[in-house]
Write a structure and sequence with these properties.
The chain is α/β, with parallel strands linked by helices. The protein has 6 domains: about 5-170, no CATH class; about 175-350, Alpha-Beta Horseshoe (Leucine-rich repeat, LRR (right-handed beta-alpha superhelix)), CATH 3.80.10; about 580-685, RRM (RNA recognition motif) domain (Alpha-Beta Plaits), CATH 3.30.70.330; about 705-735; about 755-845, Phosphorylase Kinase, domain 1; about 855-1095, Orthogonal Bundle (Transferase(Phosphotransferase), domain 1). Helix content is about 25%, strand content about 20%. A 15-stranded mixed β-sheet has the order 7-8-9-11-13-15-17-19-21-23-25-27-29-31-33, covered by helices on one side. Strands 10-12-14-16-18-20-22-24 form an 8-stranded parallel β-sheet, with no helix packed on it. A hairpin with a 5-residue loop joins strand 34 and strand 35. The chain starts with a strand and ends with a strand. GO terms for molecular function: ATP binding; protein serine/threonine kinase activity. It is an enzyme of class 2 (transferase).
């Protein structure tokens, strides 16, 4: 029988290190031992001396060495040493073999290859091959047959084996007991934790989201994994914790406890996108090792804790997107303050309710700040002179506050500054001279009260400038042609000033230049025939001349959808799968990137997107995260630059929990910089497809060796229970295979008694009425499938939505949706006519609405024009439809995708709310909100959703507010990369009263007519789009306010009677229609655009 051999080496300090064990005869090479006490590992490392282990040493836990040395001492009499190894004979050889096999299993579990012990995969090479393992069990069987010899072992050996078996269990259970207790407490109080959080050894069993150093839990990273819970104090017992990232788990809520101060070793704290509220505990200032804090996108309130000033190691401080109030804390003789954070590089405090003045003490020349971001607060007073001392600054944002006074002249000392945002304040005095700031890319000082002046010469001196926004800053005189010669210039906005004279762009402007000069006094344009730029001169005298160029005297709209697209041709994916840029179908991890700053405005320049996607991919790959590709889409500027990000997995069709947590940590920690893009935060959508844990259980291996028979019995029991469960599931599946059987439609009419008028159409009926679903009958397509026009019962025109394979629901879900739709009966809601569920098809049959969508009408595509009174009527119709869904439907319904393309106009231009494929029952949740992965439309989405991941009736109110702004302006929700809400806010200015509306009002509304009620209409729309859902009105209140606006309009008595609450159901005579197209017009059903030819 082969002998067992262990190769070993002894260090200069006398510690023996076992570095290879084999169950065969070998010659042990002589390793060169080196000692490497890694911080906190408590291990020693020996160089392998073998080619397959050239990456680094093998790390062996010290407890293993203890019992190996003990065995060696106990059997010293039988040992003979040869070539640096040792062999044994007789019964002791069998004992040694058992111990070494168990030891090898432990080494397989505990040994790391390479220098990054805590990051790399645990030893990928088995120390024993399968054949060698079988050989061992054969020898083990032989040793059992030789039981007599075993029973003759001395009492010392029997005692030793007992000690060894106990020690083996102790070695395997390596997690510190206090950490284990804390994690078990979390298991008891939190939901949706990873499924492999089982057993009694988080470190040894590699629980998802847990990393350990030696026996201590040092990181807890569960970003974006959907965990839920209110109790946070248990984490405070993990006193060895260094990294804590629980970001993007909207189900984590409650108050952050003061016991967080127990985490004295914490260096990184990330809680972005959760639901924490209440004050930030003052105890956070006791975490002296903290380098990175991000509590972005929660609901923290109260003041900024002054104790944060004690965190002398802090580099990144992000408290944005909360409800913090009070003043900015600075140090006094007795209290710390933010001015003490001399190592800090990031101050992010945007979108809070901070008030008071900015202390001059806040900044000093000793600071290393790179980003200072305080936009969208309630700060008052002057911009501090001390800001000019921090010459490391790259981005400064104080826009959307109430600052006043002159801008400090020493701001020009910030020669490293790339981006300066000071817009929408009350600054006065002269426009500051920024000469010498040659690194500036982006300058926005619009909407301030500077002294009237000519165009500053320094505009033309900033050679790196890409964006210059100086609208409403009292500029006057002629625009120097030199401005347009700047080589990097992409956007110039000088609207709402008093610029005059002849405009000369010159010939040296960049090819992608956009110039907005609306509402000035420019009298002429030195026009050249080959101009290739986007220029807007609306509101200037030059546009009133006979020779005015219509191209420049109308508002031009630029698409933001020119992002790089894949070249996969016609390919389809399964349910919930998405086609990646590399033409693979998989389940991407999705969310929104919000950039605090950015140095460009040309949304059509694909170079920026390639740089961003390339930087993200390089970061994922260098971190070992299995990412195949990324996709960026839907760019939007609304305070910040936003992108929808899709991250596609490689090798598999979905990510596991570890990859999701690692991606979340990388995107939140941001250890990389991206050219042209500033700092950002990432809000994800809950990942749909987290698989269960697939990691093997080493505990099971050891227990299997010891108690194999017991496991066999358990397997038999489990198999029997599983068979019973499968039998029940099969029986239930048979019962549910046809959930429609109980409806029993009438044979003649197809009517279903349970559906209050909706009919069951056969597949053949719908096939016939659509001419076999021919393309000539296809009137639209979308994510749900195609929409066909047809005629049923000889006379009724319908729209038939035919689901494609990827969007089909289960039978029960489809039945539930039909029951819901069939109960909706309101004149301002599109009605369900019937459905079809047979031959593998799912189809919904709706009434056909002939005049298309409100969006098409406002854009001029439909061929109809709506005057102001008709727009008020459309607003009231749509509001009544939504109010019915919210308040009168049983159960109440949240639409989830309110937009102008889902408001349809019938023959009399009455509005109907459409498209309930995305609607959800509110009553079924019992919570008053829905937590879900939203499929809504960018530009209409409730901003509070990005923080709460919860949809309420107020989410529909926000979307409807955007529709009201569309009715007034005829603009798309996102235009030129800017959100319509922001456009209206800028037009209203700091007075919050309607003014400067000439630049945004729909030019097709007759300028000579008085738009009665416009001011109240705007105030109503802006109340609907308030940031906080609690501040928005209910839809019933919106209905009443629109009725009041209509009553205030000076209509004649007949019209007034029609618009009154009591008689509004009367049909209104069709108002004059103005055709925009002679031959045809585009309309759509729901959200599916299609084209109809005039007959």
């Amino acid at each position: 029988m082969s002998s067992v051999k262990a190769c070993w080496a002894t260090s200069s300090t006398g510690h023996r290190v076992v570095w290879l064990i084999e169950y065969r005869d070998i010659t042990c090479p002589s390793p060169a031992l080196t000692e490497d006490r890694k911080t906190g590992l408590g291990t020693r490392t020996a160089d392998m001396g073998l080619s397959e282990y050239e990456e680094g040493g093998m790390t062996v836990e010290l407890p293993f060495l203890f019992w190996f040395s003990a065995l060696e001492a106990m059997l010293a009499k039988d040992k003979r040493v040869t070539e640096g190894g040792m062999t044994y004979s007789g019964v002791t050889k069998e004992i040694f073999g058992i111990v070494f096999l168990l030891g090898a299993v432990i080494l397989r579990h505990k040994i790391g290859i390479g220098v990054n012990y805590h990051k790399k995969e645990i030893c990928p090479k088995l120390l024993f091959s399968v054949q060698e393992t079988l050989d061992f069990f054969t020898s083990f069987k032989m040793s059992m047959e030789n039981m007599i010899s075993v029973l003759k072992m001395s009492s010392r050996v029997l005692v030793f084996l007992l000690l060894v078996s106990t020690r083996i269990l102790a070695i395997f259970a390596v997690t510190y007991s206090g950490d284990l207790a804390a994690l078990n407490a979390l298991k008891a109080s939190w939901k949706n934790l990873p499924p492999n959080w089982v057993g009694g050894d988080p470190c040894g069993s590699k629980w998802d989201g847990i990393n350990c150093t030696d026996t201590r839990v040092t990181s807890l990273m569960l970003a974006g994994t959907g965990v839920e819970g209110r109790e946070f104090s248990d984490i405070s017992s993990l006193t060895g914790l260094q990294f804590l990232d629980l970001s993007n788990n909207i189900g984590l809520k409650g108050v952050l406890p003061s016991s967080i101060g127990n985490l004295k070793n914490l260096t990184v704290l990330i809680l972005i996108g959760c639901s924490f509220f209440g004050p930030i505990p003052d105890a956070i200032g006791s975490l002296q090792k903290l380098v990175y804090i991000s509590l972005n996108s929660n609901s923290f309130s109260g003041s900024i804790p002054p104790s944060i000033g004690n965190l002398s190691q802090l580099s990144w401080l992000d408290l944005s997107m909360n409800k913090l109030n009070g003043t900015i804390p600075v140090s006094t003789e007795t209290t710390p303050g933010l001015d003490m954070l001399l190592r800090a590089r990031h101050f992010h405090f945007s979108n809070n309710q901070l008030s008071g003045s900015i202390p001059d003490q806040l900044f000093s020349s000793n600071m290393n700040l790179v980003h200072v971001i305080f936009d969208n607060n309630k700060l008052t007073g002057n911009l501090p002179f001390s800001l000019g001392y921090v010459q490391t600054l790259v981005v400064v944002r104080f826009d959307w506050n109430s600052l006043d006074g002159p801008i400090p002249p020493n701001l020009s000392n910030l020669t490293s500054l790339n981006e300066l945002y000071l817009s929408n304040n009350n600054f006065n005095g002269n426009i500051p001279n920024l000469t010498g700031m040659n690194s500036l890319y982006y300058v926005d000082m619009s909407n301030n009260s500077f002294n009237a002046s000519g165009v500053p010469k320094w505009f033309s001196s900033l050679q790196s400038l890409t964006t210059l926004i100086m609208g409403n800053t009292r500029l006057q005189g002629q625009i120097p042609v030199d401005i347009f010669r700047l080589p990097q210039l992409e956007t110039v906005v000088l609207s709402n000033n008093n610029l005059s004279g002849i405009l000369d762009i010159g010939n040296s402007y960049s090819s992608n230049l956009t110039v907005d000069l609306q509402n000035n006094s420019i009298s002429d344009f030195q026009q050249k025939s080959d101009y290739n730029l986007q220029l807007t001169l609306v509101g200037n005298p030059v546009c009133n001349t006979n020779g005015a160029n219509a191209k420049f005297c109308s508002v031009q709209r630029r698409s933001n959808d020119l992002l790089p697209s894949n070249r996969c041709g016609v390919m389809s994916c399964g349910s919930h799968e998405v086609l990646s840029p590399t033409c693979q179908c998989s389940h991407p991890y999705t969310g929104t990137l919000h950039f605090y700053s950015f140095s460009f405005t040309d949304m059509q320049n694909s170079t920026y997107y390639r740089i961003l996607s390339g930087s993200l991919m390089n970061s994922f790959r260098s971190s070992g995260i299995p990412v195949d590709s990324v996709n960026l889409n839907s760019p939007m500027i609304d305070i910040y630059l936003q992108f929808q990000l899709q991250i596609f997995p490689s090798h598999e069709d979905s990510f596991n929990r570890t990859s999701i947590a690692d991606m979340g940590f990388l995107l939140n920690r941001q250890p990389f910089e991206i050219e042209y893009f500033g700092p950002f935060f990432f809000i994800d959508e809950q990942y749909c497809c987290l698989p269960g844990s697939k990691k093997p259980s080493h505990v099971g291996i050891i227990v299997g060796v010891a108690v194999g028979s017991s496991i066999l019995v358990l397997l038999i029991v489990f198999a029997w229970l599983y068979a019973l469960r499968q039998r029940k599931k099969a029986k239930r599946a048979i019962e549910m295979s046809n959930p429609f059987a109980s409806w029993n439609p009438e044979k003649e009419s197809g009517s279903v008694p349970q559906l209050q008028g909706a009919k069951w159409f056969s597949f053949e009926d719908l096939k016939k009425c659509t001419n076999n679903f021919s393309e000539s009958n296809c009137i639209g397509s979308g994510g749900y499938g195609k929409v066909y026009k047809g005629t049923v019962a000889s006379t009724q025109v319908v729209a038939i939505k035919r689901a494609q394979q990827g969007s089909m629901q289960g039978a029960t879900e489809f039945k539930t949706e039909i029951e819901l739709l069939s109960r909706i009966h309101h004149k301002n809601v599109v009605s369900l006519v019937g459905f079809c569920y047979e031959q593998g098809e799912q189809m919904l049959v709706y009434e056909y609405i002939s005049n298309g969508t409100l969006r098409d009408c406002l854009s001029g595509k439909s061929g109809f024009w709506l005057d102001w009174n008709r727009r008020l009527k459309v607003a009231l119709d749509a509001a009544r439809g939504l109010s019915y869904l919210h308040e009168l439907s049983d159960p109440p319904i949240i639409h989830r995708d309110v937009k102008s393309t889902n408001i349809l106009l019938d023959n009399n231009l009455n509005a109907k709310v459409a498209d309930f494929g995305l609607s959800k029952l509110l009553g079924d949740t019992g919570k008053g909100y829905i937590t879900t992965q939203v499929k809504g439309t960018l530009g209409y989405m409730d901003p509070e959703y990005y923080m709460t991941q919860q949809l309420t009736e107020k989410s529909d109110v926000y979307s409807f507010g955007v529709v009201l702004l569309e009715l007034m302006t005829a603009k798309a929700p996102i235009q030129h990369g800017k959100h319509i809400v922001r456009l209206v806010q800028e037009a209203m200015g700091n007075t919050k009263e309607p003014q400067n509306f000439d630049q945004i009002i729909d030019p097709t509304l007759e300028s000579g007519s008085k738009l009665v009620g416009l001011g109240k209409f705007v105030h109503l729309a802006m109340s609907c789009v308030r940031e906080s859902a609690a501040d928005r009105p209910k839809m019933g209140e919106v209905v009443r306010e629109i009725e009041n606006i209509i009553e205030l309009a000076a209509l004649d008595r007949k019209t007034e009677k029609r618009f009154s609450s009591s008689s509004f159901d009367e049909t209104i005579d069709e108002s004059p229609l103005h055709s925009y197209a002679a031959e045809g017009f585009d309309v759509s059903y729901g959200s599916f655009p299609f084209h109809v030819q005039r007959q």
